[in-house]
From TrEMBL:
Secretion signal, residue range per the UniProt entry: 1-24
A GO-annotated cellular component: cell outer membrane
Highest taxon, organism lineage: Bacteria
Cellular location(s): Cell outer membrane
Known role: Forms passive diffusion pores that allow small molecular weight hydrophilic materials across the outer membrane.
Keyword entries, A-Z: Cell outer membrane, Ion transport, Membrane, Porin, Signal, Transmembrane, Transmembrane beta strand, Transport
GO molecular function annotations of the record: porin activity
Protein name, UniProt field: Porin
Keyword Transferase: no
Coiled coil: none
Organism of derivation: Microvirga brassicacearum
GO terms under biological process: monoatomic ion transport
A Pfam cross-reference name: Porin_2
Membrane topology field: Multi-pass membrane protein
């Protein structure tokens, strides 16, 4: 039994060793033809594009905000000015299902303040 498994393993390795190499240019041509361009998902609204190979539409959005503020200090040791910054990245995915549209929203907010 063990010798049969060993001979099957050796045979499988021999078959793999005999595979024909493919030039890199041919591989690149195959991969380039397989990739489809992103299409706009007009049914979901502005800014959505379709994810290749699925029915899911995705929108990537965000914002960056920076403020400089000047305030009246309450004490002499307090600062009277400073920067405030914030950023947001949001992913909005929508997939049609038999029960309606499945919507997934992921949002990351960050804020910082420096006096």
């Amino acid at each position: 039994m063990a010798s049969n498994l060993l001979s099957i393993g050796v045979l499988a390795l021999a078959v793999l060793a005999q595979s024909v190499p493919v030039p890199a240019a041919e591989l690149l041509a195959r991969n380039a033809a397989a990739v489809e361009p992103n299409r706009a998902c007009t049914s979901q609204g502005a800014g959505f594009f379709s994810i290749p190979g699925s029915e899911t539409c995705l929108r990537v959005s965000g914002r960056v905000r920076s403020d400089y503020r000047v305030v009246q200090p309450r004490t002499r040791s307090e600062g009277s000015s400073g920067f405030r910054t914030g950023a947001r990245v949001q992913l909005d995915a929508r997939t049609p299902t038999p029960y309606g549209t499945l919507r997934t929203v992921v949002r990351y907010d960050t804020r910082g303040m420096r006096n």
